[in-house]
Amino acid sequence: MNAENTVTAPMLWGQEYYWFKYFDTPAYGTTPDSIKISRVWRVPRGVPDDDDSVLAALDELVRRHEALRTNYLVDDEGRPVQVIRPPTPTGFAFRATGEAADLPALQERLAAPPFDPARDRPLRAALVRSAGGGTWVVLTVLHAAVDGFSWPVLGTEFEALLASGPAAGPPPPAARQPREQAVLDQGPDRADRRERVRQYWQWALRSMPQSMFPGFRPAPVGHFGGHTPPSPYRRMVLTSRRLATAAERVAAQRRVTPSTVYLAAFGIALSAMSGNERCAISMDTSNRSEPLLKSAVGCFFQPALVILDADPDQSAQDFLSTVFRSAMRAQRHSRYSHLDVLAEQTRIGFERGMNLRIGVTYNYFSERGAKDTARTDPADRDGNRDDDGADGAPDIEIRPASIDWQDNSADLYLAVQADDDGVALAMHGHVSVTDTDRITRALHGIATVICTWADHSETLETPIGRLADDLGIPRGRHGTGWTYLDHSWIDTSEVTRGLSALPGVTAAAVFPEPVDDGVGLTAYVSSKASPAELRAALAAMLAERPNLVLPHRFVVCASAPDDATTGSWAALEPTGTGDGAPDGRLPRTAAEQALAEALSACCPGLVPDMASPYVPLGGQVIRTPRVIAWLAERGFTGIIPADLFGPLPLEAVAEKLRERK
Predict the structure, then answer these.
(1) What end-to-end distance do the CA atoms of the chain give, in Å?
(2) Is a pLDDT exceeding 70 seen at residue 545?
(3) Alpha-carbon distances, residue 188 vs 208, 279, 289, 333, 339 (angstroms)
(4) Which residue pairs from 107-113 have beta carbons closer than 8 angstroms and sit at least 24 positions apart in sequence?
(5) What is the DSSP letter of 134?
(6) N or C: which end of the chain has fewer CB within 10 A?
(7) Is a pLDDT exceeding 50 seen at residue 513?
(8) What confidence tens digit (pLDDT) does each residue in 311-359 have?
(9) Are residues 542 and 548 in contact, defined by beta-carbon separation less than 8 angstroms?
(10) How confident is the model at residue 381 (pLDDT cuts 50, 70, 90)?
């Protein structure tokens, strides 16, 4: 693209996530590519649909909306920036003849070639004509450029431009461009807001469970030389007409939003399924509350992190209020730097000895018209509806469905899609933490509890723990060796096995004990190694055991007691004690030396310590792609940015490096 007449601005925070994902897509051997969104627009009958008219309308959209001509890269000082190019003619990637049934395949064909966010035009178009006279425009756009709320704006403008022509077409609605929003968000006038957001995320990351489902085990996702392995996810979809009205009725009664009602029911199911009262849920948020963003085209979406406590003795009505407050608080703090939060997550995880995982996602989207708002007539309050069965049972249908989205960031995902025909609840989960039967039972429980609240308001006084059991929502259980501390379920047996497998360790045991002002894990080990050496070796196992939790205190003894109890170990004379904090280790192997040189070259001021993770050493997330590129230029492959901003010590990252022959 032409570098002249470009405008450079800080990267919009909603853009950072999807831009950074480009560098992580080779995680499982796939080709580097950007996340995209595809849509199909049918050209209305009676408006010009010749090539020139369609291209002129697309060109005008590109001229109006900077997001459709923006690239994403890092400037010379290492800052993520958006570069807005001058408008240029759009063109079609291809033209095809086909019918409506051919459109999904044509969408896939258009989206198949990779997008480089730093160089490629963010919008790609194709024109499809049918023998019967229909015309469609197929579009693929970088997700960093647009979010779901951008498409109705673009579609409406496109039809208007076709109908009247770009020269005479109506002006675009008043809206703020992404670069303008980025400058506002990162300017001095919003410094206090940024600090409040930072404090919220620190609190959330320090108080969340390590993972809602500590049994999660990643599996490959993607295409491998033309072969796509079986999906590690299972998906079920529940549909119901009455459920949408029931949720709206409960929302009106309790003065909350319909989204809150679904989220509360999901929270009850999630707490039961995971066995954890404290729930951490990533919730999609549009970030369009400001008037000038209502009709803006760009990626303003960001996930909010909701932390809520599902005390089983809490009444349903109190829980609804809790969820509403938690969701509102999360949304107020949902405009943030994705890269800064990644770094904060790594630092706090390092402090807690955990690989923090936000693996549960909730998404709500409604297109229901005003006529479908909560009804309050007497017939509704009595539960007499023409869309019920004869016995008043909810009109619920649950069926298996194909996976429409997947990556290894999700353990469990619930999407709520409400429209004038009712509602669809789609849940998919990873096979290592759930299955189709558990998903089916959870969906049925979520729908039934909402309908029960709507039909029988007295059930809002029922404790949510009893509701979960009455509705048959599956409960997660943790067996022998598991302990609950630091808001997390921890498998102490796994930690013990990890320590016992280390060279030179003859015996090990792990117990929850008082540590500092709370309770933590104490590891008793018979070994000649120091606490720092033991912790570093255990931390290296996180590459293969993502749910491992590192002890907060190590007690090293020359021998082991006959009786492996806390008292027996504590009675021995220790040869070393401590938290195992890294005390500095120089690179030893060729791979470690290469990594240390890459970090020194790309991260000014950073002193590599092979026993520490990258971020706690002061490494910046934004520089990790440059480190990977530096290594690749010198023949080393095998790692991605996530390996550096995660909890792995640098020696474990170096172990993954492979030198090309």
Answers:
(1) 35
(2) yes
(3) 31, 34, 21, 18, 19
(4) 107/38, 107/40, 107/138, 107/140, 110/38, 110/138, 110/139, 110/140, 111/36, 111/38, 111/140
(5) -
(6) C
(7) yes
(8) 999 999 999 999 999 999 999 999 999 999 999 999 999 999 999 999 9
(9) yes
(10) very low
Specify the amino acid at residue 378: P
**What pLDDT shows up at residue 225?**
53
Distance of alpha carbon 555 from the chain centroid: 38
Q: Phi/psi of residue 21, each to 5°? A: -60, -25
pLDDT digits (tens, 9 = 90+) for 153-210: 999 999 999 998 877 767 778 899 999 999 999 999 999 999 999 999 999 999 999 9
The HSE-up count of residue 347 (CA atoms within 13 Å, CB side) is 16
Question: What strand order describes the sheet that includes 507-515?
Answer: 507-515, 518-526, 553-557, 574-578
Q: Are 642 and 614 in contact (CB under 8 A)?
A: no
Phi first, then psi: give them for residue 303, nearest 5 degrees.
-75, 140
- Which tokens belong to 619? 């490494």
The whole-angstrom separation of Cα 226 and Cα 521 is: 46
Cα–Cα distance measured from residue 568 to residue 551, given in angstroms and rounded to the nearest whole number: 19
| Alpha helix stretches (DSSP H) within 456-545 | 464-470, 492-500, 531-540
Amino acid at 192: D
Dmax over Cα atoms in the chain, in whole Å?
A: 90
Q: Within 10 A of 133 (CB to CB), how many other CB atoms are there?
A: 8
Contact (CB, 8 A) for 247 and 416? no
Angstrom distance (rounded) from CA 510 to CA 282: 32
Three-state SS annotation for 230-293:
CCCEEEEEEEECHHHHHHHHHHHHHCCCHHHHHHHHHHHHHHHHHCCCEEEEEEEECCCCCHHH
Structure tokens at 87: 């408008």
Residue 429 has pLDDT above 80, yes or no: yes
The b/e string for 559-586 (b: 16+ C-beta within 10 A; e otherwise) is ebbeeeeeeebeebebebebbbebeebe
CB 448 within 8 A of CB 471: yes
Nearest to 212 by CA among 27, 424, 432: 432
Are the C-beta atoms of residues 413 and 213 closer than 8 Å to each other? no
At 221, is the pLDDT very low, low, confident or very high (cuts 50, 70, 90)?
low
Band (1; pLDDT cuts 50, 70, 90): very low
Going from the C-alpha of 166 to that of each of 41, 62, 96, 351, the distances in angstroms are 18, 12, 25, 57
Rounded to the nearest 5°, which phi and psi values hold at 521?
A: -90, 130
Segment 440-451 mean pLDDT: 96
Task: Count Cβ atoms below 10 Å from residue 10 Cβ, excluding itself.
Answer: 20
Task: Work out the angle between the directed axes of helices 258-274 and 242-254 (0-180°, nearest 10).
Answer: 100
Q: How big is the chain, counted in residues?
A: 661
Q: How distant, in Å, are the alpha carbons of 366, 585, 587, 589, 629 from that of 595?
A: 48, 13, 9, 10, 12
CB 545 within 8 A of CB 563: no
Cα 95 to chain center, whole Å? 36
The answer to whether 259 touches 328, Cβ cutoff 8 Å, is no
Q: What tokens were used for 474?
A: 């599956």
Q: Say whether pTM exceeds 0.85.
A: yes
| 3-state secondary structure (DSSP) of residue 145 | coil
Please tell me the predicted confidence (pLDDT) of residue 42.
95
What pLDDT score was predicted for residue 169? 66
DSSP string, 316-362: HHHHHHHHHHHHHHHHHT----HHHHHHHHHHHHHHHTS-----EEE
- The residue whose two tokens read 């640098």 is 650
